[in-house]
Amino acid sequence: NSDIDDNLEWENEEEIIWEDDELDEKAETFVKVLLNRMKNYVPSFQ
């Protein structure tokens, strides 16, 4: 997946500024999905 390679390249950047509203929207949706998964996730060590 080329996305992984891109992320590795970005690690050295101090700050990344997204000017595309579409990316902001996708990121927001991604966070919502993540939070939803965390809420529904039951750790096996409990």
Automatic annotation (TrEMBL):
Domain of life of the organism encoding this protein: Eukaryota
Protein name: 7214_t:CDS:1
